[in-house]
Structure prediction request, 511 residues.
Amino acid sequence: MADVRIYVPGDAAAVSVGADTVAKRIQQEVARQKIDIQIIRNGSRGMFWLEPLVEVETPEGRVAYGPITENDVAGLFDAKFWSGGDHPLFHGPTEEIPYFAKQERLTFARCGVIDPLSLDDYEANGGLIGLRRALKMSPAAIVDDVTQSGLRGRGGAGFPTGIKWKTALNTPGDEKYICCNADEGDSGTFADRMLMEGDPFSLIEGMIIAGRAVGAEIGYIYLRSEYPHAIDVMRSAIDVCKATGLLGDSVDGSGDAFHVYVRVGAGAYICGEESSMLESLEGKRGQVKVKPPIPAISGLFGKPTIVNNVLSLATVPVILAEGADHYKDFGMGRSRGTQPFQLAGDIARGGLVEKAFGITLRELVEEFGGGTHSGKPIRAVQAGGPLGAYIPQTEFDVAMDYEALADAGAMLGHGGIVVFNDTVDMARQARFAMEFCEIESCGKCTPCRIGAVRGKETLDKIIAGEDRTENLAILEDLCDLMVDGSLCAMGGLTPMPVRSAVKYFPEDFGG
Prediction:
């Protein structure tokens, strides 16, 4: 083994700003100077404003340099960075960088720390403890642990994971399935991708535990085609697990079978909805299905099916390893554990922040995010994806948990937070919500399919100054219809950004 290990992220966000070139340039310099250095392509720590972030393993721990370009590499070697030498881009110990040090990382504890495809690295950093404990437990005991932890779906709906698992466990079936919804499509979100590229074994471990809990032997990861790096890493991780006996006819020698397959979606936002995703997995057009029955009773191919988000499944190993009470100690009220928040838009320090539920939006945007990148004042933040509410600065002290946001007329969604400065036109943002629904609707129900088109047309009239009072009344009626009559959240939630924009920014609508 080399005397020194240097980490350069292979995460798509880091690669997009030159990480591959930086790694290649470091490798060339290592060969030229004949220094005994091993370069490891890890995941990202989630401090995207510092990417590419190069880390060096020293006797005192890992230290960070960033953001590094290929032109900085020669200077790093002049500074003897492989031994922690000083440099203008030196940040000291990685885990003491304030943005990172203030976090509570449970789900993302290994992300950016390990070689994503090294099972030895994964196990040395706490991996497989939860699985091996689960293999000695009864299915009902596993479900009870997950229920007691308070874990809720991290895909947006926030449904209690343990209740869903208990339903599938108690439903008879000759075949059952575990489906991971990795169709991360909300604006400003990247946590699923970051975890799959940085710690893929945690997702696989969570799926195996879920399979044992409900009696399923097959799992599918429905992964969006826009994530080629994540697709490659997940497929490679599955191959590693097959080769080492963690996947197959006898998981880790237990006698329990479990197999995992990646299926790539075609880019339909509606396939983030569970029944549409299952239709797509079956080779059909992605369309919402009428409920009941729910997937836990009749899902994929009509069999009992668990559909969970990437972050929900990847958190299960932590709960099984540390215990339900340990996880439940984080958070507040009915929102237990931690939530990976994703800061995007016009923000100085964009990236991932994993914190216990209850942190305020102001703390996330101002303390972690550092305000806007442009230096302009913040006018609004959209939380919860393209169908989430617009929140003005006067409401930034809202606690970021399911219930507090619902009381404020907003939602947590997948934890995405997009910051807009004072140049944003909120009437046009409201129009975008309706246009987005028009484009992405599966077309099955009239309130969504036609309501979005009429909503966009009505907003066009308002923006043009035509009969604003009358058209705002029509818009409100359309929003009522979409909320009350739509089959799923696509149409039912589209009014949320529209109504919040009208409520908090009436001046943009001629008010």
In short: DSSP finds 21 helices and 16 strands in the chain. The first strand starts at residue 4 and ends at 7. The chain has a mean pLDDT of 95.
